[in-house]
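Worked problem 6 (solution included).
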Amino acid sequence: MKIPAEFYQSVEFHFEDCDKFPFPEDKIREWIFFIIKKEKKTPGVLNFIFCSDEYLLKMNVDYLEHDTLTDIITFDYSEDFQNISGDIFISVERVKENAHQLKLGLLYELCRVIAHGVLHITGYGDKHPDEIAVMRSKEDHYLRYAVFL
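Solution. The predicted structure is:
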């Protein structure tokens, strides 16, 4: 699948309240593009903000009124259902802890959480058991295409 040059500029990775760490940015961008296209959506601007537990907990309390740790919070700024844009905040500490507990590699777990955020913006939920099952199935499906893992 050919990735348009402008897509590389429309997916950005940021670090807030955590150290920057190496990961295959361009390969992950290509994989994100693949997910979006397979979901029959048009990519807009997507910001992935890697942060600490503390940073994400404050956002969870301030914006969602949830006083719990989480690995991801997604803000969907899509103007319509076809063209997707948003900010995806990911707690690096939660991802590391989850990877350790599940005995998975850090990059694998990071990609699972990235896929989760992208799937939220493409329209999938995870509030009810049936939605969670679909979300997990989609995450697993797309992780099989992350050939860089």
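Discussion: Residues 7-143 form a domain with the Collagenase (Catalytic Domain) fold (CATH 3.40.390.30).
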